[in-house]
Amino acid sequence: METESTLPAQPEAPFSWRAALEIVQALALAVVISVVLNLFIVQVTEVRQRSMEITLLQSDRVLVSKVDYRVGSPQPGDIVVFNPTTDVQIPYVKRVVAIAGETVDLRNGRLFVNGQQRDFAGAHGTALPQSPDIHYPLRVPDGSFFAMGDNREASSDSRSFGPQPYSRIIGKVILRFWPLDRLIFFEW
Questions:
Q1: For FRET with 52, which of 12, 67, 118, 179 sits at 20 to 30 Å CA-CA?
Q2: CA-CA distances (angstroms) from residue 53 to 57, 106, 186?
Q3: What are the residue ranges spanned by the domains of the chain?
Q4: How many degrees, rounded to 5, is the angle at CA 167 between CA 183 and CA 110?
């Protein structure tokens, strides 16, 4: 009868360089795919301002499509992420309220575009001018958009720094995914 100490030792599995190489290749491919997606297709952005409340709250996480405006242009009502032409270091999240060729006017605390009042679900507060350098009515130049936050009284937007070039747009907000209880797809 054999005891435990006399049992033949089981050979250990040899280290497989091939398996390690496959793991490294899979990880490298995942990194490359992630980088390509982030640079050209979609990116995750954290809302850092209160200017889009109640539509988007500070610290919400959104998915931003970088493809939409490669095949089309922004439309009024789109929520976009862009780098403003100011000295701000973080991207802004705002709603496009007027596009190239449209005329913006702020009267009696309301937004008018091409002479018609323009309202958006979730937008609230008084729409007042913010800069003495911007005069209304204002025609949005070609290749530009006029953006405002939905929280009109707590938003630094095109009313303070003027229309922004389309080239400053990072992408269009298509999904709020965090927090999970506020998950929502925005219209495409």
A1: 67
A2: 5, 20, 15
A3: 45-185
A4: 65
Phi and psi torsions of 23, nearest 5°: -65, -45
Decide which of 180 and 81 is more confident: 81
Q: Is residue 81 pLDDT above 60, yes or no?
A: yes
**66 neighbors 40 (Cβ within 8 angstroms):** yes
Alpha carbon dihedral 73, 114, 116, 156, in 10-degree steps, equals: 60
- pLDDT reading at 168 higher than 70: yes
The pLDDT of residue 6 is above 80: no
What's the per-residue H, E or C state across the chain?
CCCHHHCCCCCCCCCCHHHHHHHHHHHHHHHHHHHHHHHHHEEEEECCCCCCCCCCCCCCEEEEECCHHHHCCCCCCCEEEECCCCCCCCCEEEEEEEECCCEEEEECCEEEECCEECCCCCCECCCCCCCCCCCCCEECCCCEEEEECCEHHHCCCHHHHCCEEHHHEEEEEEEEEECHHHCEECCC
**Whether residue 1 has pLDDT greater than 80:** no
> In angstroms, how far is CA 29 from the centroid of its own chain?
26
Catalytic positions: 51, 94
